[in-house]
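REQUEST ID: PR-0412
SUBMITTED BY: lab tech R.K.
PRIORITY: routine
TASK: structure prediction, single protein chain
INPUT:
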Amino acid sequence: MPLHFNSQIIDEFRTNAGRLGGPFEGWVLLLLTTTGARSGRNHTTPLGFVEDRDENGRDRLLVTGSAGGSDRHPDWYRNILVNPTVTVERGTETWRATAVAATGAERDRLFAKVVAAAPGYADYQKATDRIIPVVALYRIPEDTYTPPNRLDALADELIKIHDWLRSELTALAEGLGSRTAPGLTVELRRHCLTFCSAMAVHHGGEDAGLFPYLARTHPEKAEVFARLQAEHATVGRVLDELQALLARLDDAEPGALRAEFDRLRGELETHFAYEEEQVLPLLRESV
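STATUS: complete
OUTPUT:
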């Protein structure tokens, strides 16, 4: 779409909580904000979408890089290949997501789903020799600072987030054990991107809001919070190693790969356990 056309849709979308009128009435769109592959600047694009659920029961939204059937991939698609963490606006909701481009047979299967819901995309594909990409948007669980009078609720949320992160680690471990299955490399990398993005959001919220508050209200726990924040830095390094590990899936020797992953997983599990042991009682005190 031309930039001025995009701007009109974006303005109307945000002004009317996702509802469009006039020439756009009846359109059901989301706004996708990506980080420029070269510029590093944010770019927002209106896109149609299809609701879907993957084979593991995870909800996702499917978007296509149709670009109206042009012979060039849209800029937003090029951006997500470099920076897969995006922001999605749908109606009145805004959330972070991991954007995963489907490949091969998986791309064909998902494109068929999109065409079944919106047949016009088939016409776009006929208009170009370019294979129109399909991208799945997986929502990243939020972890935001909760006001002090709701710290008991935050305790439950902390457990839920940790359990979800543990399930992603388990899925990664299972995938490493059978990584020759068709399409598994893409799925493993999807898990890794989602997991690493979620960890960054989770720890960012704790460092910026929760931990400083608890450190002020529980000065006797200063050493605990100093250790937790130091562990966050260590976890950041571990996540970098985890992503590098997954990038070597096609070439690494299976035994060495699994041993390295188990070491990284152990460090993360130790961190989760210590945080739960030390922080949850403090949150429960607010009940």
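NOTES: The longest strand covers residues 93-101.
REVIEWED BY: pending
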